[in-house]
Amino acid sequence: MPHVPSEDMDMTTETVTQNTASSEAIQTPKKIWITAFIFAFLTLLCDGADLGFLALSLTSLKTEFHLTGVQAGTLGSLTLFGSAVGGLIGGWACDRFGRVRIIVFFIAYSSVLTSALGFTDSYMQFAVLRTFGAMGLGALYIACNILMSEMVPTKHRSTVLATLMTGYTLGSLLATLLAGHIIPEHGWRFLYWIAIAPVVLSVLMHFCVPEPESWKKARQLKALEVAQSNQPKKRQNPYFEILRDKKHGTMFVLWIISTGALQFGYYGVSNWLPAYLESDLGIKFKEMAMYMVGTFLIMMFAKVIAGIVADKLGRRAVFAFGTIGTALFIPVIVYLNTPTNILWMMLFFGFLYGIPYAINATYMTESFPTSIRGSAVGGAYNIGKVLSIFSPLTIGFLSQNGSIGLGLLVMAAAYFICGVIPLLFIKDRLFNPQKAE
Predict the structure, then answer these.
(1) How far is 187 from 118, CA to CA, in rounded Å?
(2) Is 1 inside any structural domain?
(3) Per-residue pLDDT tens over the stretch 39-73
(4) pTM score
């Protein structure tokens, strides 16, 4: 039996041949996947807080650095650009080096660069650091969702991944509470300095969470194929591997369009909604912060409910309901808001707004086999994110020539496109992430 050139290989090729088949689902012990969930949840909580820091400090940054609306919007766009690059790198690196290793590295990387933003003294310094720091945000989102999709049983997957995404929302909520207290009293810099804390999480995860078995088995099977072919191993471009298969290639393109529209709408709204409440509607900062807290709490509730329903009724129906519902309700907020009803509108909006990201990760990870999942999901999601780079800029431009509300209507159109494509073309549960396919 020839030697199998593979990293992280604990079994001989005989053992792999006898005990591992790509058609078998590999069950992860409950204790392990719950531990992994806790770390992934805390990681996305930090991710959500990081994104929230920029949106909530935007007014302070405009004052500090004398920014125009377009310059302020550019900071959001640079964050998305960095996140897209990081997601592409992170998706590929997950397939190459392992899901857990990439999470551990990028937690530390992102924490250090985000905390350094508090020491910047010019717009250019802030913009450059933000771009590089945001690479960690994109990589972590992809890696955490892939890790959990491969560890959690199919019957619970939507519920668990939806609950995982509440970490993102809880991070935004935490950022709102921190900003509401810190910015008025201590200024925006202190808000960024506390971002160094997640480094501790990185160290602990390194020792507490193993790589998923399906990823390790898929690598072993691939190495066995190479060994049996008696040909030297050549590293193929993962995207060529995806596109040369018609089914995978079509799915890849459909998800690029859908996630591009989703992120265009989501990041446009998340970057500018606090400013819309504060500037266009004249709500005071602390009151606005409490409105956002209520919205985030409802979003968390909506994500858990959406996950449970998606495990029962299917991913496609719930995803379409959330995206199209959000698209239809944004114009209601813009045209029908009053001082007496805006709170209730924000709460209902939070319910709809929370659903798409609760389902998106499960829906996408089940659309591709294990061997290409990291590259396919990371690629589709982050190539789509390139479109979202223009959403904060779009609202920033429209705010100078009209109102932030006008820009939010453009985001509504994006949400509608995002929901219609999967509804028509993408089926549920095409692959099981627990299989070494």
Answers:
(1) 10
(2) no
(3) 999 999 999 999 889 988 988 999 999 998 788 88
(4) 0.77
